[in-house]
Amino acid sequence: MAKALLSKLKESLISVLPVTAIVLIISFTPLVDLTVTETVAFIVSAVLLILGIGLFNLGADLAMTPMGEHVGSGLTKSKKLLVLIAVCFVLGVLITIAEPDLSVLANQVKDIMPGEGDSSKWLLVIVVGLGVGLFLVFAVIKIVFHKDLSTMLMFFYMMLFAVCAILAENGKFGLLPLSFDSGGVTTGPITVPFIMALGVGISSTIGGRNANENSFGLIALCSVGPVIAVMLLALTTTGDLSVYNTDIYAIEESLGANFGPLVLKKVGEVALALGLVVAFFFILQFIMLKLPRKKLAQIGVGIVYTFLGLVIFLIAVEIGFMPIGYKIGTQIADKNPTLLVLFGFVLGMVVVLAEPAVHVLNRQVEEVTGGGVKKREMLIALSVAVGISIGLTIIRMIFQFSILFYLIPGYLISLGLSFFVPKIYTAIAFDSGGVASGPLTSSFILPLVVGACVSLWGNTEIYSLAFGVVAMVAMTPLITIQVLGFKAVASSKVRTKIALRRILSADDEQIIYFADKGDSND
Fold first, then answer.
1. What angle, rounded to 10 degrees, do the helices at 176-186 and 149-169 form?
2. Which residues contact residue 400 at a Cβ distance below 8 angstroms, ignoring those fewer than 6 apart?
3. Distance from chain centroid for Cα 114
4. Is 399 within 8 Å of 460 (Cβ atoms)?
């Protein structure tokens, strides 16, 4: 166990260290002026973030992934489709409520949601959870009845953009970027391993020649549900979109006398969110799963690690990364907005290069494609693409135009490519949006863009101009992986044609010579 924990801590160190180093380096330049308190708080929060992500990832391996696989295979073996659908819906809701990335985002936008205080935050979280639960049902139906993923994605994205039109017609167009961000943060570090494991469990039990292909695509569909759900919720919002509460980024709000209450609050939130998932799992264990005690003990240890990791992660984000990201954004934008575009591009490249899940994805794609897409070219393509997506987001914020100028062409290209590449590439591409938009996107890069927006335009246009960065990062792999897949397929066809041409143009005399030579040796 100690060896596994050390490995996870090493992964999280590699993930957090580059961003930390960049921030500390830039703090010694005239572009950014951090106080001693802010610098110390950021360093301490970076250490806590490394510890939190490490513990959380180990807990996900020990608890969340096995829970998903056992639930998926156990329910499928029961051959009761309605039970499978009902349980998957409830689990989709509960696992999303426990998602840390969603909690970070909800805390930043709770002021415009119906209700007051934390109740408005929980309303957003629950609505997103309902969206995930419903579309997880669609994903399970896809596996059970072997439906085509590309066709389903085309249908649901057309539905999504139809809801966009309704949102615009009702004067809520400013919440469109937030809606798309909700889809990006939902597929976070706790949701992805659980739902993917659930798909593997169901697909492996059903079997069939396309079992591996059918296990992908669940995350793709579950990313659409939250976007539509938040758009529908946006129609009921009563908050003033021209006012954004930037007090949540004040570092004083989480230090000193406020630190103790912050810790207790995060412990309570995580206990409630994670406790719902665990309680439901053990109900299933008692009724139908009947796992051995040894396996339950492993899952129990994993749950403890997950709980500690989540608490430490959320505390680290609130005391250091969100405030410092916001301040860097305001100061660089105030001095030189052009440099902010370059800074965003570099941050995007570093965040993806350092994301452990991206390396897992790269190995997975190389194995599935039989080496047609190399890990190295995949990593380079993803890092450059994510860097460009963050740079484009900042450009959009500077020049004040709609995010739809990016999203509509991006999704049209993605959906169009799905009809020209093998289905496995499409499934992996749409699943991997959550992999690219890791924890640092919502906890550091989003506050940075918000800070830049406040510096340039005040806090009246934040919802329409600053939000959308998570959506852009999540959209990047949809195009990148499919383009690499298209390239691999095209290269394979070219090599096959060249080989056939050489065979057909071979000299008949040489063929006869070798045949005669073979006969002479007999």
1. 150
2. 457, 461, 465
3. 26
4. no
Q: Burial letters for 356-379: b for 16+ Cβ neighbours within 10 Å, e otherwise?
A: bbbbebbebbbebbeebbebeebb
* Rounded-to-10 torsion of CA 30, 33, 36, 38: -140
Q: What is the DSSP letter of 318?
A: I
Q: Looking at residue 215, what DSSP letter applies?
A: T
Instruction: Please check whether residue 365 is in contact with residue 488, taking contact to mean a CB–CB distance below 8 angstroms.
Output: no
219-260 pLDDT tens trace: 888 889 999 999 988 887 766 666 777 877 888 777 777 788
Closest by alpha carbon to 411, among 475, 457, 348, 352?
A: 475
Residues 6+ apart with CB under 8 A from 261: none
Q: Give whole-number Cα distances, 226 to 156, 179, 238, 274, 335, in Å.
A: 12, 7, 20, 20, 37
- State if pTM tops 0.90: no
Cβ pair 366, 375 in contact under 8 A: yes
Using CA atoms, how far apart are residues 143 and 214, in angstroms rounded to an integer?
6
Distance of CA 479 to the CA centre of its chain: 15
204, 215 contact by CB (below 8 A): yes
Element at 224 (helix H, strand E): helix 224-234
Question: Rg of the chain's alpha carbons, rounded to an integer?
Answer: 24
Interior CA angle at 102 toward 418 and 276, to 5°?
A: 110
pLDDT of residue 514: 47
Query: Which residues fall within 8 angstroms of residue 377, CB to CB, at 6 or more apart?
Result: 484
Residue 343 CA: distances (Å) to CA of 24, 123, 184, 337, 393: 14, 35, 22, 10, 12
| 57: nearest Cα among 359, 308, 365, 353 | 308
By residue count, the chain amounts to 522
The DSSP secondary-structure symbol of 62 reads: I
Does residue 472 contact residue 222 with C-beta atoms inside 8 Å?
no
> Residue 286: which residues within 8 A CB-CB, separation 6 or more?
none
CB 446 within 8 A of CB 367: no
Within 375-468, residue ranges assigned H as helices are 375-399, 404-417, 423-431, 433-436, 439-440, 446-457, 462-465
pLDDT digits (tens, 9 = 90+) for 56-76: 889 888 988 888 888 888 888
Burial category of 81 from C-beta neighbours within 10 Å (exposed 0-12, middle 13-18, buried 19 and up)? middle
Cα separation, 426 vs 420, in Å, equals 10
Residue 404's nearest CA partner among 170, 224, 233, 160 is: 160
Cα angle, residue 446 at apex, residues 323 and 110 outer, rounded to 5°: 80
Using CA atoms, how far apart are residues 349 and 16, in angstroms rounded to an integer? 13
